[in-house]
Amino acid sequence: MHSYSAEFLKAIPKTDLHVHLDGSLRLSTLIDLAGQYDVQLPSFTEAGMKELVFKDSYRNLDEYLNGFRWTTAVMQHREALRRVAYELAMDNAAEGVRYLEVRFAPQLHMSVDLSFEDVLRAVDDGLRTAAREISSSSPDLPQFNYGIIVCAMRFFTAAFSRYYATLAAGLQFSTLREIQQLASYELARAAVRLRDTSDIQIVGFDLAGSERGNPAGVHSRAFAHAHENFLHKTVHAGEAYGPESIFQAITILHADRIGHGLHLFDAEMIENPDIADPDRYVERLANSIAETRTAVEVCLTSNLQTSPDIADIKHHSLARMLDRGISVTLCTDNRLVSGTTVTDEIQLAVDSFDIPPETLRNIVIHGFKRSFYYGTYAEKRRYVRGIIDYYDKISQNFLRKRR
What we know:
The chain is α/β, with parallel strands linked by helices. The protein has one domain (6-19, 90-109, 128-402): Metal-dependent hydrolases (TIM Barrel, Alpha-Beta Barrel), CATH 3.20.20.140. The chain is built from 17 helices and 8 strands. It has helices at residues 6-11, 27-36, 46-52, 61-65, 68-73, 78-94, 116-137, 158-168, 176-197, 220-228, 243-251, 278-291, 300-306, 318-323, 342-352, 357-369, 377-402, and strands at 14-20, 97-104, 145-153, 202-208, 232-237, 257-260, 295-298, 328-330. Strand 4, helix 10 and strand 5 (232-237) form a beta-alpha-beta unit. The radius of gyration is 21 Å and the shape is globular. The model is unreliable at 161-168 (pLDDT under 50).
């Protein structure tokens, strides 16, 4: 096993391409905003919230997701959204993250007082202000950059479904599936339109929520619109369902990246009877992902917390992804709900798997290369070149110290 100092892992430039805004508040901010907006939490102390809501481990995915009812409740105001986004960027910069892609579902924050643009503008303002302060306070470091990924949802709460049912009345949309299709399509149209008519740094479109019973195909029209309008796509797939979900994300939704991809190699989870040889199907799928450089956003801590069947982290599919040359990047998923940071995730990976220096370098640089960078490809290439040079400089400095 190769070892790396905590100092080195903090110093190297990093990315987080898979982090949910509403799962990554500072706990102190959640409590403060709850008091400000009269939201009744299970506890108004950090110790109490950690005991009752944000735990070290969870029984299942449902318990894990329970925390979001409290975070989204305090994020129903423009200034709250701006503050949470600003603090998220500052917290990332403090541990050496230089590029951040924040994702969230705007529908969960919209109201009579907050339009789609209001919500996106508030988040962008928070990130932009932080980026400006970070870059000016550390001119010797690579520039801090960010992007926003707009999330469509595979399923809705009853209230949200009723809202879209009302909207669809008279348009001859009746089933829940049709309502879901309408909601994601309208979201994709709104995201593309706002990207094209404002300076809000919208860089991608995502599909989140429970995979089982909520197939990707329902949202094909939304992702086709994003695809046709050159908006990058990432899809939560293979987190709680098998390889077929990942296949659908790539072939039906044109995914450029895969969120989680945990069950990529679990042939026993394949349910389609037409797949005669599940093992061969999985091998071909993995090979295709590697060959097309479709990046996988790996979230180790989150996967361990939501997948009780993984008794030991060494059973995580990360090692097999690396063995097959798949482009992976390490992400937090939810800094608050999972109680983690990017540095923690990298530390967990190098402590649990044999990751030599060249492989670690590739994992870190893949995060920058596979990002949905807000700017031209030429600008992105120059930015990534600067990151690589900076990484190598840090690496050489630490190597000299060890001698």
